[in-house]
Amino acid sequence: MDLPRGYSVEWGGEYEANQMANESLGGVLPISFLVMLAVSFLLFMTVRQPLIVWLIVPMSIVGVTAGLLATGIAFSFTALLGLLSLSGMLIKNAIVLIDEIDRRIREGEAPWGALVDGSVSRLRPVLLAAGTTILGMTPLLGDAFFQGMAMTIISGLAFASIITLVAVPVIYALFFAIRAPKSDARSEAGPDAARLQ
User: Fold this and answer.
1) Which residues of 7-162 form beta strands (DSSP E)?
2) CA 189 to chain centre
């Protein structure tokens, strides 16, 4: 754009406000993540369980991206706030699930049984918590200011809650070398073979 001498153009309005908000948040965000990381390590006092928790968080980006692309909603500052809130919800879900598995193992249950039974027992609480949050965010989809945050939480939570219930037990089994118990040859051969013996 050709301008006369002494004139200049600067972006203002919503763009300027978003830039200022992002810069302000960017200064505090690393400290917040370090505190969350420290708390998760102090909670378990080990390395593997918090690592499982933090491996789940990036998976939510797939659901967030799909939701925003499908609806054409821009990734605004409020959507960024929604993503931060979403990460907290996913961390909570993963901690609840891992803590249940650990508790069952401490009580003497076989690791494979604890993994399966713990995951099944946490299925309903995780899905109900996700469902109520999604329903609570739905009215905000019609709000021009908050629709980015609402869609980020709805799509990310819907996708990541299912992934959490699948990925956490799988990663836990990999990290702790838990294998399914092998059935004996008699049970594999079936009831007819057992009767012949």
Assistant:
1) none
2) 42
Average pLDDT over every residue of 18-25:
70
Q: Tokens 């609570």 map to which residue? A: 136
Say what the pTM is.
0.75
Q: What is the arithmetic mean of pLDDT over 51-65? A: 88
Q: What is the pLDDT of residue 175?
A: 92
Domain boundaries, the chain: 15-179
Contact 159, 166 (CB under 8 A): no
Distance CA 159, CA 146 (A): 20
DSSP-derived letter for residue 176 is T
Q: What is the pLDDT of residue 188?
A: 47
C-alpha distances (whole Å) from 118 to each of 6, 47, 54, 115, 140 are 69, 20, 19, 5, 34
pLDDT band at residue 139 using 50, 70 and 90 as cut-offs: very high
DSSP helix/strand/coil, 110: coil
CB atoms within 10 A of CB 122: 21
- Element containing residue 137 per DSSP (H, E): helix 123-137
Enclosing H/E stretch for 102:
helix 77-106
CATH class of 15-179: mainly alpha
Closest by Cα among 54, 55, 64, 60 to 33 = 54
User: What is the structure's pLDDT at 196?
Assistant: 39
Q: Identify the CA nearest to 156 among candidates 23, 64, 85.
A: 64
